[in-house]
Amino acid sequence: MSKMPNSPKVRLAIVAVSRDCFPIELARNRLGAIVESCGRAGVDVHPCGIIIENESDAMAALSEVADTGANAAVLYLGNFGPEGPLSIFAQRFDGPVMACAAAEESGDNLIDGRGDAFCGMLNASYNFGLRDVAVHIPQMPVGLPDQLASEIAHFEIVARIILGVRGLKIFAFGPRPQDFYACNAPIKPLYDLGVEVMENSELDLLVLFNQVDENDPAVGRIVQEMADELGEGNTYPDLLPRLARFELTLTRFAHANLGSRRYGVFANKCWPAFERAFGFVPCYVNSRLASRGMPVSCEVDIYGALSEYICQLAGDSPVTLLDINNTVPSDLIEEDADLMEAGIEDLFMGFHCGNTPTVCMNDCSIKLQLIMNRLLESPDAKPDITRGTLEGRLRPGPATLFRLQGGADNQLSCYICQGGILDIAPRSFGGIGIFAIPGFARFYRHVLIGKRFPHHGAVAFNHSGRVLFDAVRLLSAGDINVPLPKGVSYPSENPFDSA
Q1: What is the tally of structural domains in the chain?
Q2: Which terminal residue of the chain has fewer beta carbons within 10 Å of its beta carbon, N or C?
């Protein structure tokens, strides 16, 4: 079950299939065994009472699992299985589907107890292809109950991502800031994924904000929440009522405008006109909404918001959006021999003005946005409209960097890479940390630059690469890119480059 709000609850059904020339009891008994294994693994599954042998059984099974409220299904080949009926079930089921099969249990039972599901998976896969049905098939799809239970637990997370994406609406308040062409968002690939988009004007947002009364009791409650969360980091108490009004504006708007969808995220303009119109920088509010399962991407980055939400669903925990920002000077790590030997070129600083949730930071406080302050306020004046960032060091530990992007050609592509955030002070401003990603230097050149990805990356504070890979593959999200190991060249890599 998901811990994060604004996320789907997956309700799994498992449906056994049996070819009519095999004993149906073989599939039924194996279904009982795998349900028991799922229970021990902490996975709640509804075993369908219908064993699919023919098309009529497939339709009856669809009806039964619909009545239980199942929104994801596992097709389990207890024996060879009928590829036509089981693929009809997958085609007509309104939710993500996984397929797996039973291994033989003992050499003492290979006459009546041999199910041939290893062979049956081949035919099932072929029929899924004939019907253009996207089905999750594990790396090791044929196994004993305890082995398959762990794969079903993995699929439950994959299903959460699929259901979240299909139920998502992205609210955008724009347009993009000047010279941020990288944050373009062709709509067609989003619709292909099942995502709804509602684009609005920055003026629409200002009108909504001005309609929120500072004396609204909800504003006072949010101010108190902010003060409690910030503690000693509450450096500008006078700013909190403005920020609270803005938070209330966004949450009320989302709840009033979900329409046909169940989940919502934002992609909002945040500078430079924003500060003059609203009187603050919105970063801290963005961080608070992200901590509650509703990421708000910066600079109207619609695909950035989607990437954040997918990362959130993968790890079931708060995420952030960062610039892949700057290199790491050698004097920051020269005392760490292992890092120096591994290569400073695979390090970078991930930075944004201050949108990262407090739970993802070591220490933080409300600050002014230095870059905007240079642009918008006199250096001799007391900072005012450029206050509102949440600055501090990112929490050290495991991290996953992810981006799903629709390109100018309306084609989807993504990248996934794993590594960690180092416990080293970056000595700079903003919400910032030093990332170490194995093989990042080559990946940066031949994937991020070579395939024209934007500067924003979604960051999960865990290792979610495996589930992200399976989810985007099931979403048919185009080209999937991961770092390649030493000795394996990228297609664009110059084989004569000695470096």
Answers
A1: 2
A2: C
